[in-house]
Every structure is written in structure tokens, then in C-alpha cells.
Design a protein that fits this description.
Helices cover about 20% and strands about 30% of the residues. It is of the alpha/beta class. The protein has a six-stranded mixed sheet with strand order 7-4-6-5-9-8, with no helix packed on it. Strands 16-13-17-21-20-18 form a six-stranded mixed sheet, with helices on both faces. Strands 22-24-23-25-26 form a five-stranded mixed beta barrel. Helix 1 runs parallel beside helix 6, helix 3 runs parallel beside helix 6 and helix 4 (about 240-255) packs across helix 5 (about 275-280). It is elongated, with a radius of gyration of 30 Å. The structure holds adenosine monophosphate and magnesium ion. Adenosine monophosphate binds near residues 196, 262, 266 and 313.
Length: about 425
Amino acid sequence: MAEFIPQPSCADPSEPNSLSVSAAHERIAQLLTPVSAWEKRPLRDALDKVLNQAILSPIDVPAYNNSAMDGYAIFGEDIKAEPFNLKQIGIAYAGQPFKGEVKQGECVRIMTGAMMPPECDTVIMQEHVAVDGDIIIVHGEQRATQNVRLAGEDIATGETVLDVGHKITPADLGLIASLGIGEVTVKSALRVAFFSTGDELKSIGQTLEAGQIYDSNRYTLHGMLTRLGVDLIDMGVVSDDKGALREALQLASQQADVVITSGGVSVGDADYVKEMLAELGQVDFWKIAMKPGRPLAFGKINDALFFGLPGNPVSVMVTFYQFVLPALQQLSGEQPAYTPQLKATCTSKIRKRPGRFEFQRGILSQSTDGELQVMTTGEQGSGILRSMSVANCFILLEEHCDGIEAGTVVTVQPFAGLI
Ligand code: AMP
Ligand code: MG
């Protein structure tokens, strides 16, 4: 990992003493060094892993000239004004080439994918042919070299098919298999330890006393991290106690490449995360000019990178998607992922004060004439986790925006594009 250089929280003119979303992105990106560990994996176990090697094709694809149609392999020179006749002398199936020699005036019945007889360069599709014994009568306009897939036309031997840093998709599994490669070298998964902080948190199955709530952040984090394919270390709930926090942070930093906590990073009397981070490692605490999710502690403990997310459940998800996710992707050695941002007409009026970048929860849909439209999920409180559950996108409202009327075109970030 890169050397950590603590930086003072910089002032943003629109919100004193806070950092803009884009500046926070840049600062985090500067501190990330992708994993160098790698491992060999059988192809089937490489789905969603990041390639540590470029995949070069050891063969031509297709490996031989073959027919793109069910029809008849002929000499291109034999094409005449329609109709014209040729004599069929044999059959070529996929996997069973025709073994004889073809002369001009002759043809071979051929199936899709079957190897072309070496003398032939053209295939007449069978729908253009009438058959009379071993004579075929060709109708319609024909062109020499049509309906043939040439050796190496998709991929030539030695060509780079996939680059280092590519995350393997189902299509890639098939592509790599089509080259006869059964094992690939991939980057080792990141180890990510996470825990929730808060005296009020109870786990499922425990009875709630007055003033207590169930811990939901560990579940959303579990889901978001699982989708990313990292190795998870779920460390449970840690109380608002300096000793307990110190112990948990030390243990986490010994076991993981990245440590993520939720809660305890604000300015309350029991918010000890920053203090413990300063004691154990290096801390860069930011107030980010965003809503929800203003406080974010970022730093290092030993060699582990640390993200102290806010406690509010929606803030956890927003800060994870906006900051932790791209950081983890970069650390995983993945090529920068494309996250689509779309323009949609907002059917809700949205009230907003200038100064903070807002990630409102939205429901994106398509009208009957194909236009994208979005509405907010309603109340946007950072504790209302249901707003994330019913939403399928963020509505992005820039810092300077002072609210919008219904009918305004806004930028949205679909969750489906995030992960
Ligand atoms: P904090 O940042 O610790 O002050 O927490 C802010 C708010 O988020 C409080 O209302 C907490 O009760 C709530 N909260 C903190 N952690 C969790 C959690 N793991 N699950 C659900 N709510 C939480
Ligand atoms: Mg707390």
C-alpha cells in the first residue's frame, strides 16, 4: 500500500471545513495500491475474479474455415446467372469433414460449423437450392466467398483477448474456454473486516430493551461486500468503549487489508472511533459536503486501510457506494469500472438547500413512450433504510443546486450499474 500522508481537512467554500465529494474521491484514490498477491484458479472458479495475467490466444478462432449456414460448399467461380446447376459429391458435418476432393462444377452438402473442403470458398444457403437427385439447382443472387467463417477471423493466434485487471464475467468464462485454457491467474481476494459500533445495538434473536435497536448495518455491509467478491471477516458489534474499540481495531487490522466500521465517528460524547484511530494509526477525518453521510473517517492502522462510516443506515450505504466501493475495486486491481449515469425527468418537486451534494433515493422507470423518469422515494431521512430498499437509483443533486421543480431533467445513478 502507498505511504499514508495525513492531510488537513480542507475547507470548501460552500460549507466551511468540509470536503467536496470529488476532492474526497481524489484523496482516497491517491492512497490506494492494488493487491499484488495472486493465485491460480481453475476456470470455473474464476468468475468475478480479477485477472492477474493477460489472456493471449494460443489458437486461431475459428481454428479452420467453416460454414456459417446449412447449405452447399462450392467454388466461387461456379456462380453464374440464376438458375445454375452443380453436382453434389458428398456431405460435411460439424466434426466430420468431407474427405474427398471437390472439382469445379461440383459441391458438397455442408452443415453449420462444418469444416469447408479446402478447395471451396463459398456456401449457398439451402433455402436457395432445389434438389433433383445429386443435382442442385441454385436460385437467387449469390456472391463468391459468402457464408464462410474464416480461420482466425474472430481471434488470431497470439492476440490479447483479455487484459490484466479485467473482472471475469460469464461471457469471459466461455471465451477463455473456447481457447482451450482451463486455468487462469487471478488477483487474490481482498480481506475486509467490518463491525458495528454502538451500545444501543442488539443482534437478531436478542430482546430489545428500551432505547435499543437491531444492528442493520452489518447486514447491508455483508450484502454489499459479498457482491464485490471480497473475503469477509464479520466481527459483530463492538460497544462504545475505548478498550473494546481498541482491541477490535487492532485485531481487525492484523487480519484484514481493509477495515470498515459504522457509527461512532460523529461528535457525540460516545463517539470514540476517531480517537482510537489516532491512537493506533493515522487518521484523516473529513466532513464531506454531502447528504446523507457527512462524517467519514479515513486512515490506516498498520498496513490496513480504514473506513469509519457514519452510523445512520442510509449514510452507511451511500458512503459505501460512493467511496468504499470504488476504493475496494481499485485495491482489488480491477480496471476502473464504468458506473452509468443517466438523465431522467424527475416527476417530484425536490426541496434542497445549496451547499451539500445530495444523493436522494429515487425510483427510476420508463414511460410507455420509452422516456426515463424518476421520482423520489419520499422522506429522505438518513435513518430511513426503507428508502434504500424501495429505491433503484440515486438522484444526484450537485452542491449548488437549490431544489428542483417537477419536470426537471436530473442525473441518476442506477443501483444496477453500481454493482
Ligand atoms: P452514531 O454515528 O454512532 O451516532 O449513529 C448514528 C445513528 O445511527 C444512531 O441513531 C444509531 O443508533 C444508528 N446506528 C448506528 N449503528 C447502527 C447499526 N449498526 N444499525 C442500525 N442503526 C445504527
Ligand atoms: Mg453510536
